[in-house]
Amino acid sequence: MRVLITGGAGFLGSHLAEHFLSQGHKVIAMDNLLTGRMENISALFKSRDFEFVKCDVTNYISVRGKLDAVLHFASPASPIDYAHFPIPTLKVGALGTHKALGLAKDKKAVFLLASTSEVYGDPDVNPQPETYWGNVNPIGPRGVYDEAKRFAEAMTMAYHRFHRMPVRIVRIFNTYGPRMRKEDGRAVPNFIMQALKNRPLTVYGKGNQTRSLCYVSDLVEGIDKLLHSDINTPVNIGNPRELTILKIARTIRKLTGSKSRIIHKPLPVDDPQVRRPDIALAKSRLKWSPQVSLDQGLSKTIDHFKRSQ
Ligand code: UDP
Question: How many CB atoms lie within 10 A of CB 224?
Fold first, then answer.
């Protein structure tokens, strides 16, 4: 296959690029480097099958030659990033998805959208199955990401229904691993960096809100299986082990051997109280379930942050 990955220099995009190259495919990574980084992909240039194009996918995009798959992963993805870049976040989810779909249609390629558990907002159903429509505040600070991704899903389904295009939609739950940015503001990088520096771990609110953390290699495996399936509707990919934020902070403190205290800071506006994927669909149709334990995944991530300090 020849695969285009938008957001190819980002955290997930770079892991996907590495994965598809290792499977013998050709990869074009496209990124405007707003939150992506060249150091994520610098090792991939030794492969003759890898190309990088610096480009903003909210504008017209073109690629020479055939494409078999377009994976649309471009977007700021942490709450801090989309608070810094609200309009680029809306544009890449809306206009960028439209451009990437148009390119996939032209090339007769499969289109895969990186969607998110954020389409469920602050859910009043737990765990969240794909059939749940969500509880999103459209005008809150997270709305720029949540609504852009909801629009992206609607646009993808319209291309599927109207143009009969093969599409895949992965709803990604909290994913962590090497190559997350230290300063992206999310719980895992914040806690690891704070713990390594013996600074207080900043738990927002009481810390009894929950998240379900999936290690990046499990996510990549799930996306690969989804791409090769024939499921045109959304599929949750995430780890169903639900943990409180306080538990995540304590686990990171234990694994780093840190002496950090835990302090509490105000809970951000519209912070979801619970989040846990129902992965029955991925299990039955993709024969996928996560394999990496929390301790294993966090240890690898901690090593990465130690090396890049
Ligand atoms: N959080 C926290 N301390 C931090 C960063 C985040 O307690 O330093 C909390 C945040 O309020 C949320 C959870 O951790 O409840 C996960 O936040 P993250 O930004 O990682 O991702 P989200 O799931 O909110 O998109």
Answer: 16
Residue 309 above 80 pLDDT?
no
Indicate the CATH number of 2-176+214-239+276-290 among 1.10.3710.10, 3.40.50.300, 3.90.1150.10, 3.40.50.720.
3.40.50.720
Active site residue 159: no
Q: Ligand 1 centre from 108 Cα, in Å?
A: 39
- The distance between the two most distant Cα atoms of the chain, rounded to a whole number of Å, is 58
CA distances to 47, 121, 213, 225 from 173, rounded to whole Å, are 30, 12, 7, 16
Pocket of ligand 1 (CB under 6 A): 78-79, 174, 186-187, 190, 202-204, 209, 211, 245, 267-268, 271
pLDDT tens digits, residue range 78-99? 999 999 999 999 999 999 999 9
Domain boundaries, the chain: 2-176+214-239+276-290
Mean pLDDT score, 276-287? 98
Which ligand 1 atom sits closest to the C-alpha of 118?
25
Catalytic residue selected from 60, 82, 120, 145? 145
- Of residues 91, 72, 277, the one with CA closest to residue 159: 72
